[in-house]
Request: fold
Amino acid sequence: DQIRPKVEKHIREVKDFPKKGINFRDIMPLFGDPALVNELCVVIADHIRHTTGQIDSVAGLEARGFLFGPQVAIQLGVPFIPIRKQGKLPGSTINASYIKEYGEDRVEIQEGVIKNGDRVFLIDDLLATGGTLRAAADLVKKAGGQVAEAFVLIELSPLNGRSKLEDVNLTALISYD
Ligand code: 5GP
Reply:
């Protein structure tokens, strides 16, 4: 609760990025304050310990989920699983697809990183339409795991991504109207 305003101060609004009409929320200024990034990852790890409960791994979404996921996983001493766009991970993979504005996109994990019944904590920077996290949740299930919780720093409420994730325990640190 105390961390929310501190993080919020570092979120920059960039109009018309990546294209006209989009109000992009830039989280990168956060990383100019390493002590705060550390505090944030400790707070997320404590939240998992006290609220989420036991987890087997932290899975982060490419690319900005990679900025937080490994640090949270290290705090808890559990594996980090990268969820990547199709074609980036070597070896056998499991994938799930989702519809984007222009056509379909796929996310993947490497085979074997999630075991049957594993409780996986999903993390990304931001929830917009919810397509990305939906595909990630489907992927975890397809691999035999369950989503213990999905966590984002920012939720863009008007885009209603939450409605795509009704079966998922979803937490957002900051919500913008
Ligand atoms: P969704 O699939 O929910 O529509 O989009 C969420 C994904 O797009 C996330 O992986 C997130 O990183 C990225 N994204 C979409 N809009 C923004 C934004 O305004 N700021 C940031 N930082 N990421 C965004």
Q: What stands out?
A: The mean pLDDT is 97. The radius of gyration is 16 Å.
